[in-house]
Amino acid sequence: MSKALILVVEDDPLQRRLIKQNLEPEDYTVFEAASGREALEALDLYPIDIAVVDFKLDGETGVDVIQKMLKRNPLITPIIVTAFANVENAVDAMRQGAYDYIVKPIDFDRLLIAIERAGERQKLRREVSTLRSSLEDKFSSKNFVAASAAMEEVARLIAKAAKSDATVLVSGETGTGKDSWP
Question: What span, in angstroms and rounded, lies between the C-alpha atoms of 96 and 53?
Fold first, then answer.
């Protein structure tokens, strides 16, 4: 079973093949794209987890491609690879959404570590999403038990307030069920 689905976006076919050949033995499924356009097409076809993107592509930058990718799939984890290493490029790439920045010639041990860390990040993000969904279901207003129209109105107001940063105080006599949320 594959660890993650990785998209390699590199306009140099030799570099693209070299990256793929180094990742596949590590049990990653690797897709290739020679341009930003091909990368976006691949995102539409496959649930890509991690994108390894060259900083300088024909006619566009890897940072531009990352921004477009993140708009389509905010959960993708992009890693920039570049032969044009400088601090400004690295900082800009990270600000624009890159998870890591690797300098060519590629140290494949370093790339594998970055990909493993990115995979862990993906796993945690999926778990958080699942937990949030579970909590939203558990604590939704549909689970609120109300025997009167007044309590149904309280539940509706609580649900409305929950969508904001407001603090809510529900008061009433002891034993009226104020703390009976699931």
Answer: 13
What letter does residue 33 receive in the DSSP assignment? E
**Residues 106-136: b if buried by 16+ CB within 10 A, e if exposed:** bebeebeebbeebbeebeeeeeeeeeeeeee
- Residue 91 in tokens: 């900082």
SS3 30: strand
| Distance set, CA 65 to CA 51, 69, 166 (Å) | 10, 6, 38
Angle 62-72/36-45 helices, nearest 10 degrees? Answer: 20
Q: What pTM value is reported for the model?
A: 0.73
Q: Which of 161, 176, 4, 149 is nearest to 76 (CA)?
A: 4
User: Could you tell me which residues come within 8 angstroms of residue 63 by beta carbon, excluding any fewer than 6 positions away?
Assistant: 55, 80, 92, 93, 96, 98
- Greatest alpha-carbon pair distance for the chain in Å reads 74
Give residue-wise pLDDT tens across range 153-171.
Answer: 877 777 787 778 877 777 7
d(CA 180, CA 177): 5
Token reading at 99: 């998870």
pLDDT tens digits for range 91-115: 888 888 899 999 999 999 999 999 9
